[in-house]
Design goal:
- By secondary structure, the protein is of the alpha+beta class.
- It has one domain (19-238).
- Helices cover 22% and strands 34% of the residues.
- The protein contains 5 helices and 12 strands.
- The protein has helices spanning 3-15, 57-65, 95-109, 168-175, 211-220, and strands spanning 24-29, 42-46, 49-55, 72-74, 83-88, 113-128, 148-151, 155-157, 160-167, 185-187, 194-199, 222-238.
- A 5-stranded antiparallel sheet has the order 1-5-3-2-7, with helices on one face.
- Helix 2 packs antiparallel against helix 3.
- It starts with a helix and ends in a 7-residue tail after the last strand.
Length: 245
């Protein structure tokens, strides 16, 4: 290769946008606590900070790529290891960019490699019932100092499921993990915002007899429709224990 083509190639490579990365990131093994819910993972974020508590690698992949647990397949030797991750951005960024930054972090620190495939799977579509949604008022959101947190599963209180500070796509994702649903739930409502949602009596009923579906429609004005859809699946190729801080 001549000098000029080589210079042109190097210049073109330099012009390619670099993956967004965090300014600083700490990854430490989590200390498990013995009380109920002590192993529950939690994700909190602001425009400049991502905090993940008691997460395993699958939790991280789910948040980074905005997928459900059932959309991850392949080998993962770290599924039993849990970590506390704190990562900061040099300047405020939207949550979509925080997710891309986490993708870069997983690739560099966990040596994660994966590929994307499309599988046709049985799913539920979360839609608005005929009389409209009956959600509580959305939580106020300041775009400059907005703070959101989400746990991996709903809390149980007095026989009810509590979904705190959840968007409707996140709500759909958590529904997919409940007994009696147990398949991908795709948000088709188009409802924006964050909500504190209580599904009364849901934890106390038999969830395999369709009762949960009725509660969802009666209390929230939402319903699940069974169908089949192409769903993106992430196939893990390689993982490794995180590189020390």
């Amino acid at each position: 290769m001549g000098l000029m083509p080589l210079i042109a190639l190097l210049f073109t490579a330099a012009q390619q946008p670099q993956p967004a990365t965090f300014e600083a990131a700490s990854i430490k093994p989590s200390a498990m606590t013995p009380y109920e819910g002590g192993s529950r993972s939690k994700v909190e974020y602001t425009p400049i900070r991502l905090t993940m508590s008691k997460v395993d690698l699958n939790d991280c992949i789910q948040w980074a790529y905005a997928v459900r647990e059932d959309q991850i397949s392949g080998g993962n030797d770290l599924s039993g290891d849990r970590y506390d991750i704190i990562a900061t951005s040099a300047s405020p960024v939207p949550v979509a960019e925080l997710r891309i930054m986490l993708q870069s972090l997983l690739a560099s620190r966990f040596q994660l490699t994966l590929r994307r495939e499309a599988h046709v799977l049985p799913v539920y579509e979360l839609t608005i019932a005929g009389r409209g949604p009956k959600l509580p008022p959305p939580k106020s959101d300041d775009p400059v100092v907005s703070h959101h947190s989400a746990e991996s599963l709903p809390r149980v209180s007095g026989g009810s499921f509590i979904f705190s500070e959840t968007s409707i796509p996140e709500f759909a994702q958590k529904l997919s993990m409940l007994r009696g649903v147990e398949r991908p739930v795709l948000d088709r409502t188009g409802i924006a915002g964050y909500y504190d949602i209580t599904l009364q009596g849901a934890a106390a009923v038999r969830q395999d007899d369709g009762t949960l579906f009725g509660l969802l429609e009666d209390q929230l004005g939402l319903k699940l429709i069974s169908t089949k859809q192409p769903v993106e699946v992430l196939v893990i190729g390689h993982t490794a224990k995180p590189i020390p801080n």
